[in-house]
Amino acid sequence: MSTFAKDDVVEAAAGAIGAMCALVATYPLITLNTRQHVARRGGDATTDTDAARGDARERWRRADVKSMYDGIEPALVGTVASQTVYNYFYARGARARAAATGRDADGASSLMIASGAGILNVLMTLPIWTLVTKMQADVKMARERTENDDGDEAETRADVDDAVTTRRRERRREKEGARRGFFDVARDVMRESGVRGFWQGLTPSLVMVANPALQYAFYESAAQWRMRQTRKKSLSALEIFALGATAKFGATMLTYPLLVVKTRLQVVSKDMADDRMRYRGAVHAIRSMAEEEGLGVFYKGIETKLTQTILAAALMFTVKEKIAENIYKARSRVAARV
């Protein structure tokens, strides 16, 4: 963070670049975490988490790295859109408050400004993230449907030649497990749920606005305090990294249960093998998950998420702040020469 006057466009562009770098670096962890959220095996959250980790390790061992980047292209588009919208309106709101009051926003004001920017961001970009989440979980869901089909087949066709049965299963797995593209998933959503299907998980997503809002409020307050303590005009990359990581840790711990619910709602499909995961809405999902899987389900995969989100937030803040700082410095040098 620096003491240069913030510019809406610069902040939006720097934020988008920082977020893209963080996304690419941590995307395999995001995919793993999504698959942990949708795993449902009798309510044993520990077993589900271990199974998802084992699946990820197996993919890396087979050099199937591509599957861990399912949905990366639309995710990059969504990241640019989200960060541009969020940072633009956050910077605009902070600048408007500073102009009205004559001082920088404090913690409470930062939280309110961040919340407003977050709500606009969710309403404008949720359709992209719904499709990304479905793409990340798609291979897992397809595999579970195939395994269920195989079980039924074993009971009704035990007399079929083993070699023929095995080959048919392999072909079915290849067909069912094939990764679908962005537009394939979009067509499925439109066919099953219509336009409203693109806003699946809207309620928890709006409530989860508190996550980036808390994150930015924590970070801005801590950064301003640090600069006052050190009497410096800007923070070092290491200081930004540490403050960004700390802010994200606090925000994630408070809002993680809503992320699990949102992911479940976004991957809901009429073709899902487990009827119990066909939720009618956020309230029904929360009640069903708590009753059938226990309260621990709401923190399933928390270790993976903390690793990913803290690293991503620290990288994003570091890249964003340093890019913006260099642009402001270059602009000042040019202005001084004129």
Automatic annotation (TrEMBL):
Keyword annotations: Membrane, Peroxisome, Repeat, Transmembrane, Transmembrane helix, Transport
Family matches, as Gene3D superfamilies: Mitochondrial carrier domain
Q: Which GO terms describe its molecular function?
A: ADP transmembrane transporter activity; AMP transmembrane transporter activity; ATP transmembrane transporter activity; coenzyme A transmembrane transporter activity; FAD transmembrane transporter activity; FMN transmembrane transporter activity; NAD transmembrane transporter activity
Q: Where, by residue number, does the polypeptide cross the bilayer?
A: 12-32, 111-132, 240-259
- Any Pfam family: Mito_carr
Q: How does it sit in the membrane?
A: Multi-pass membrane protein
Recorded superkingdom: Eukaryota
An example Gene Ontology CC term for this record: peroxisomal membrane
Which region is the signal sequence?
Answer: none
Q: Which family would the database say this protein is a member of?
A: Belongs to the mitochondrial carrier (TC 2.A.29) family.
User: Can you say what this protein is called?
Assistant: Mitochondrial substrate/solute carrier
Q: What is the lineage of its organism?
A: Eukaryota, Viridiplantae, Chlorophyta, Mamiellophyceae, Mamiellales
